[in-house]
Amino acid sequence: MIAKLPQPLTDYFAAKNRHDIDAMLVPFSSDATVRDEGETHHGSAAIRSWMEATTRKYRVTVEVADAFVSGDAWRIAGIVSGNFSGSPATLHYGFTLHDDRITRLEIGA
To answer: What is the DSSP letter of 10?
Structure first.
């Protein structure tokens, strides 16, 4: 059974599937960190730039396939479809939450 996602994660994935950058950024804390494709992005401006670039390049949608929680750490398996070789593919999203904000996101295979 998939754990019920907390609101910040529900909001993030809904916005991601709409390709709505402003709404994707809302659940993140101002000093959050994102690690994706071997690069680290820290702070709202850097995360916005990452979101804009990856949304423009890949146009992905994510279907949450599985979710596990341990304290403030969430591990999400998502079926990701978009403009990339091997689509669709399962990617893993590691989120850390604090005070109902995403403070860290790491995306990997």
So the answer is: H
**54 phi and psi angles, rounded to 5 deg:** -70, -35
Are the C-beta atoms of residues 63 and 78 closer than 8 Å to each other? Answer: yes
Cis status of the peptide bond prior to 88, with omega within 30 of 0 = yes
In what helix (H) or strand (E) does residue 18 lie, and over which residues does it extend? helix 7-18
pLDDT digits (tens, 9 = 90+) for 67-97: 999 999 999 999 999 999 999 999 999 999 9
Global model pTM greater than 0.90: yes
Amino acid occupying residue 11? D
Could you tell me the domains of the chain? 7-108 (3.10.450.50)
